[in-house]
Amino acid sequence: MSKTLPSSIDETLSLLEKADYVAGRALATVLFLSLKMGRPLFLEGEAGVGKTEIAKVLAEQLDRPLIRLQCYEGLDVSSAVYEWNYAAQMVDIRMREASGETNRDAMEDDVFSRRFLISRPILQALEQVDGRAPVLLIDELDRTDEAFEAFLLEVLSDFQVTVPELGTIRAQEPPIVIITTNRTREIHDALKRRCLYHWVDYPSAEQELDIVRRKQPGASETLSRQVVDYVQALRRKELFKNPGIAETLDWATALLELDKIALDPQAVSDTLGVLLKYQDDIAQIQGSEGAEILRQVASEARSEGALAGAGSPKA
Ligand SMILES: Nc1ncnc2c1ncn2[C@@H]1O[C@H](COP(=O)(O)OP(=O)(O)O)[C@@H](O)[C@H]1O
Ligand SMILES: [Mg+2]
Predict the structure, then answer these.
(1) What confidence tens digit (pLDDT) does each residue in 9-59 have?
(2) Ligand 1 center to residue 245 CA distance, Å?
(3) pTM of the full predicted structure?
(4) For residue 227, what pLDDT is reported?
(5) Which ligand is nearest to the CA of 55?
(6) In DSSP terms, which residues pair with 41 in a beta bridge?
(7) Whole-angstrom distance between the N-terminal and C-terminal Cα of the chain?
(8) Is the distance from the beta carbon of residue 19 to the nearest atom of ligand 1 less than 6 Å?
(9) DSSP code of 162?
(10) What are the structural domain ranges in the chain?
(11) Can you tell me the distance from the alpha carbon of 156 to that of 196, in angstroms, rounded to the nearest whole number?
(12) Is residue 211 within 6 Å of ligand 1 at its C-beta?
């Protein structure tokens, strides 16, 4: 048996927290409502802000299978929904011919039966495994084309798929659907209308520090704070590609591997490729802008350290 759905916003928040997913109340609310109302959740935001992770966390916490449809340009029904197993069909026909079977209608019926159908993610999500409606993650929908969107709209309206040779396959219990987009193009209104919408933003400094503490507990408090403050400052610059949360975590890990307990100019310069993935961005930050950020981050840490020191009783 899969676990029951959260019955309140607070329960949704604690479900996310249990999986070390740091979320604000707005996200927990829309997630709670989408589960409660049985509506797909449409998550839009920059790369690396935690959209895909929500589906993973949800599947894990609700003890449901996660079925992921990774979208890409040219994704079609045979990769997303189902495909006939031609090779197996051919073998079956040959064997029947060899054994002298001549009834063409019977042969055709059999060759187009369920056992020759290969189900791809969408069909898998409708034909639930062991009675547990899965979490269906339709990831990076903006990479597909409008034809696929239109098809998806149909699936999401009635949670069924029609295979012409076989008939209609309908979900007994609709899957929990999470759709993500990195907004490289607009998704059609008709599809959005089926869903509840949430814009996933970069976390606040406080939230991001919480994430680093949870996911990289080995990093010193000073290093964690400085890493977060530095990344937050970078996101205020006009970079070609801002670092996401994954980059923050990778950076903290990299610095930890180098035995750093605080940022210094050399460490930053040596590891910038963990954080920024475009040479123009790296060049921009390696100059005076990066030095200025580091100076600020280090002086904040010092004043916080002084404050913390002032508050603690002297031995
Ligand atoms: N709110 C969060 N709380 C904890 N970890 C997070 C959060 N958001 C993102 N992460 C971490 O950052 C990584 C990247 O997030 P991901 O979901 O892949 O981003 P997106 O799908 O938006 O590009 C995840 O693997 C996860 O470890
Ligand atoms: Mg993603």
Answers:
(1) 999 999 999 999 999 999 999 999 999 999 999 999 999 999 999 999 999
(2) 6
(3) 0.91
(4) 97
(5) 1
(6) 178, 196
(7) 56
(8) no
(9) E
(10) 9-73+123-199, 82-119, 205-303
(11) 13
(12) yes
Mean pLDDT of the chain: 92
Neighbours of 114 (CB within 10 A): 11
How far is ligand 2, taken at its centre, from the CA of residue 48, in Å?
A: 7
Does the beta carbon of 247 sit less than 6 angstroms from any atom of ligand 1?
A: no
The letter for the amino acid at 73 is E
The CATH number assigned to the domain with range 9-73+123-199 reads 3.40.50.300
Q: Which helix (H) or strand (E) holds 225?
A: helix 221-235
pLDDT of residue 231: 98
- Environment class of 238 (CB within 10 Å of its CB; exposed 0-12, middle 13-18, buried 19+): exposed
Q: CB of 50 closer than 6 A to ligand 1?
A: yes
Whole-number Å distance, alpha carbon 238 to ligand 2 midpoint, is 22
Length of the chain: 315
**What digits encode the pLDDT tens for the residues 246-288?**
999 999 999 999 999 999 999 999 999 999 999 999 999 998 8
CA 138–ligand 2 middle distance (angstroms): 10
Q: Is 67 in the pocket of ligand 1 (CB under 6 A)?
A: no
Ligand 1 center to residue 160 CA distance, Å?
A: 31
> Over 50: is that where the pLDDT of 217 sits?
yes
Mutate to test the pocket of ligand 1, among 13, 44, 53 (most ligand atoms within 8 A of CB): 53
| The token pair that represents 298 in the structure block | 């280090």
